[in-house]
Amino acid sequence: MRRSFMLLMALVLASCLSLPVLADEGMYPVTDLHGIDLRAKGLKLDVKDLYNPGGVSLIDAIVNIGGCTGSFVSPDGLILTNHHCAFGAVQAASTPQHDYVTHGFLANDRASEIRARGNTVRIIDSYRDVSADVLGALKEQMTPGERTRAITARTRAIVADAEAVQPGKRAEVAEMFAGRTYVLFVYTFLRDVRLVYVPPRGIGEFGGEEDNWMWPRHTGDFSFLRAYVAPDGSPAEYAPQNVPYHPKKFLRIQPRGVAEEDPVFVLGYPGRTFRHRTSHFLAYERDGRLPIVAELYENQIATMTRMGISDRGVALKYDARVKSLANSSKNYRGKLQGLHRLPLIVQKRDEEQRMQAFIEADPVMKARYGTMLKELGMVYAGLTDHALEDALFDNLRTSSAVLSLAVTVVEGNRELKKADLQRDAPYMEKNLGRTKDNVRLSLQNFHEPVDRALFADLLTRMRKLPAGTGGIVMDSVFRSIDQIGGMERWLDVMYGGATLRTPDAVFTLMEGPADVCETSADPFVRLARALAPVFAQRRADRQETDGTLTRLHADLVAVKMAFQKTSFIPDANSTMRLTVGRVRGYAPADATVYRPFTTLRGVVEKTTGVEPFTTPERVIALYRQGLFGRFVLPESKQLPVAMLYDLDTTGGNSGSPVMNAAGEVIGVNFDRTFEATINDYAWSEEYSRSIAVDIRYVLWVTEIVGGATHILRELGV
Hints:
With 717 residues, the chain is of the alpha+beta class. The protein has 25 helices and 21 strands. The longest helix has 42 residues, at 523-564.
């Protein structure tokens, strides 16, 4: 018995030190690239070409930009990423008179580049394992909630220490395996980012949400931005005197592109995957969270879209939010389709039955892990039962911009009185500037009729919850609505008394004395104060659940490794990852075969002149004249637009450079196929396909359509 237990622990330790070279599935962490034979996968590179702690490598050119990925493609800080990743900044810079969302944006020189609000750039500098330090904060007698808070406090202290000895850097502790392995990453952090070239919406978002997550795809989803620093080279906030950042490494563009079956790879920052979760988690996603949140988002999208139809100024305020919610809701629908059609849950249950038998065959393991799977089932059953309530409370704050500002005021007023490390993250000194920028953007995008409609819908939904679910505070709100004569009259009173209409009004209360919120007559501030203990209790409850799941998932990984007699790649967690594959089509249904390239001919064939299938007249004219320059496909003599490949990607990989075997950029990743939305739970060579805009289309649009020849010169093309 002791021998089997020691074997289990040895396997767990091994998982922290090395990873096997498996099949094409895998988002390999930068911490484990040493275990991969890249040449065996068709690349002409060694691992040190990707990551070289003692020198310069490709990873030095890869950036995290606003939650997406991008890459430096010139020595002067030029960044190539997706159109949809720059969309929020474009929308923030647009007005009805200067509608960059519709018509695109081009800076003809550096002085004309404009601020990309809300965007920052992170470039990885170093990493080190801090698992022992993090886990050393835990005590055997701690409750699950105390474990969660202890890990949070310890990771914050580690981050603060790292940033103190490296001024200007940003640090982050990433949980690689829940409750088991933690890695400290240190990043160069750039805060001045500017727009350089963004194609018109009819190119960058051609097909809109109708084509989103679909193949064939004909979207020119790319943009160019630039990172700036202070004249002395240090990171700085936006300022006119700042100068372009000079990266240690920038990627070369390969204008000849690639061909079918060519090896390709991606370096990027994928968001979250959940491949090491149980059938109980998948059932919770299928029966609880996903359908509820998708329907809620779809209703909000319909409201914002309807109320912006007759006023482009109103539509501009909500374009970015609509786009974000639509992307998520369609992703969720794809996942739901996959969970209903594919036998993933059944397969997981079969595996868990075998795993349970494996546990019970060893008395030591049975004593430690015997109830693990049952406990996981109980936690997720509870989450499923409360999925609607959780979704509505999670959206209560965000449904109304005014309520969100009021909550920020109340939270900020409380948190700013604490020592910096004790504050909630948005109110720590290093993040306070970003929080204030978000306040300004929220007010810039505020339109009262839309805000009222979204808030009213959310409250109406909450009122349908079982009696008492919302607690005393929400019961009081509903009584007030009845007493005053209905929802519309109640909203008249709320919005009529709202004072948080300017950034100064928000910051004055947020940074004022402790009693300033208590004496405020603003009805939204009063509501936010009443909700504060409700939010606090829900947060504490979530910490308890998270603490329980962290412990159980750590046990699950340990048992799974012993059961499978191997280690495996940790789920994606927004840290740098490598994925390798080939340009390749697929067959999603009977008698249906998809080739890996689309062309400009498909753009013209789809163009109807009605959104979202509108195309700039210049593009149509160039197509009819066959003016494709040097960017055509050799076989068809057509201009390529998008391409497919079997890389393992997920959200956050948007904007990642797709590179050929020599490490040259041949595309910009922006999506997956509808069947591959299930990637977050399971990858399959059969149906998992990702989509990029072909670099030849990027170059053609930039040079021939946009007339931005200076950008191609900067690219060295």
